[in-house]
Structures are given as C-alpha cells and as structure tokens.
Amino acid sequence: MSDIRYEKQGRVRLITIDRASVMNSLDFAANDRLVDVWREFDADDDAHVAVVTGAGDKAFCAGADLKSYTMNFAQRPAPEFRARFTNGPGFAGITRTMKIYKPIVAAVNGFAISGGFELALACDLRFCSPNAEFALQDAKWGFHACDGGLIRLPQIVGLGNAMEIILSGERIGAEHALRIGLVNRIVAAEALLDTTLDYAQMLAKRSPLSHRFAKEVMDQAVGLPMDAALRLESRSFYDFGMTEDLAEGTTSFRERREAEFKGR
Questions:
Q1: Cα dihedral sign for 136, 129, 14, 126?
Q2: b (16+ CB within 10 A) / e for 188-215
Q3: Are the C-beta atoms of residues 260 and 244 closer than 8 Å to each other?
Q4: pLDDT, tens only, 141-180
Q5: Interior CA angle at 153 toward 182 and 84, to 5°?
Q6: pLDDT tens-digit profile of 39-86?
Q7: How far is CA 150 from the centre of its chain?
Q8: Which of 73, 143, 159, 225 is deepest in the core (most CB within 10 A)?
Q9: What's the mean pLDDT in 20-47?
Q10: Is the dihedral of CA 43, 95, 105, 215 positive or negative?
Q11: Which domains does the chain have, with CATH numbers?
Q12: Strand, helix or coil for residue 255
C-alpha cells in the first residue's frame, strides 16, 4: 500500500500522507509519490480542487523523515542529491518549482513542522484543528528553511510575524496562527476533514478558469510595481472575457440558476 493516498471525490481530490507511525514525515519514496500525485492532479481536467492532510490525529506532516534522509544523503553523490531534490519540485512536491493554478487546501490536523509547515504554506488555504502546531525549527539545528518557508511565510503573515517564527524556531499554536492570518479557520478535530472537503466541494462549483487566471495573476504580480501589477490584472480579465465560463456565468445570473462551468 502506498504511503500517499489519492482519492477522487467528485471534482475534489483528497491527498493523504499515510505515515502516521512517523508523524507523517516524508522519506524519499513518499516524496517522489507526492510529486507524481501533484502532477496527476494538475493534468486532470476533471480535478478542480485538492485537499491535502495527514493520517491520524497527531500530525499533518512533521517534515522530512530525517533518519531516511540522513542515510540517503550519505549514500548519494552531492550532485545527484541536488539535481533530484534541491533543484526539483522541492519538499512534498509543490514547494519549489511546480506551479499548480488550481485551489489547494490544507487540512492541518496536528503538527506541521519544518518541511510540513512549508507544504502547508504552499497551499492556498489552511484549515486547522485546535491541536495544530506550526514551526520552522531549522534555526535550532544550524540551518534555515529551504522549501519556501523564508519566501511564503512573510507574504502570508507579514515580515514581523515571520521573523519571530523563523528566527526562534519555536512552535506556535492554532489560536496564534489564526490571529496572524496563517490559518483561515480553526475547526474541531473531529470535523476538520469533513469541513475542509465540504469547502473544497463548494470551490469546485466555481469557475476553474477563474481560479486559474486569478492564481496566475496573484503569483506573477508578487514584486511587481503597482502599475505593472494592475496591467497584468487588467490583461487577465480581458483574456478571461473570451471564455465560455464567463458567458455561462453571466447567463446563469440572468436566469437565476447555478452556473455549470466547463473550464473553457
């Protein structure tokens, strides 16, 4: 049985890291499987939204399986290691070079530590249980985050809050995470996955092209001067005006019915 489960629920795909015995940490094989799963999700036109979570009730993902990584790093020549992991899609498949312009929601059911935290940061939305804890602990062990933590965290919570988390390496709880905008919602542990999946099903009824165009604009606008960013947004809206989804949306509004978007 695979350490990574990939389940179809209508137009939602549920991705579960099923390694609860090691706090859902990822070894090389599980990381490779996640890369394949994300590519499958991205290529599937019928898959509109993904939810990613961890098995059990203790951990979303505790980062790298350090015992496995240390052993593999010792056995692999540095250039091979770098080509496969450092220059590749990054930890958990979506933290570095893989761009997926479909909504991805994290259901954080416990510890999200180091690489696991970076996986959650690479998602678009984060729902968490009250026992969730987040940390980038790298500074405790003599290095720093390398799979998007230094880049995405300040964009999500602001520079001051990010500095506190990154420089200290200390954990923060769910209420703190909600207060600084790291998570969107706190949901009772027993209801977390169902609530997240229900939300994902709602998103899946929206225009997939709208999601794609909007995510592309927000991604590409980071760091641009305001005038250039606004031109990018305006151009995207012009291009979207040529789509069947926009025509269906305006028609459904006039006819007072729910839209049936085709992603065209």
A1: negative
A2: eeeebbeebbebbbebbebbbbbbbbbb
A3: no
A4: 777 888 889 999 999 999 999 999 999 999 999 999 999 9
A5: 125
A6: 999 999 999 999 999 999 999 999 888 666 555 555 555 565 566 666
A7: 15
A8: 73
A9: 94
A10: negative
A11: 4-204 (3.90.226.10), 208-255 (1.10.12)
A12: helix
CA–CA separation, 202 and 196 (whole Å): 10
Q: Two tokens at 252?
A: 């459904």
Polymer length of the chain = 264
Instruction: Provide the β-strand partners of residue 52.
Output: 15, 106
Helices and strands in the chain: count of H runs, count of E runs? 11, 10
Q: How many other CB atoms are found less than 10 A from the CB of residue 44? A: 13
Q: Are strands 59-61 and 111-113 parallel, antiparallel or unpaired?
A: parallel
Residue found under tokens 């970076």? 118
* 121 Cβ neighbours under 8 A, 6+ residues apart: 95, 148, 149, 152, 153, 156
* Half-sphere exposure (Cβ direction) of 197: Cα atoms closer than 13 Å: 16
Unique residue bearing structure tokens 């980062």: 63
Name the burial class of residue 66, with classes exposed (0-12), middle (13-18) and buried (19+) by CB atoms within 10 angstroms of its CB. middle
Residue with tokens 């001051």: 160
Q: Please report which residue ranges of the chain form alpha helices under DSSP H.
A: 28-43, 66-75, 78-81, 115-122, 149-157, 159-168, 174-179, 192-204, 208-221, 226-240, 244-255
Nearest to 142 by CA among 169, 118, 163, 112: 169
Separation of alpha carbons 169 and 144, rounded Å: 9
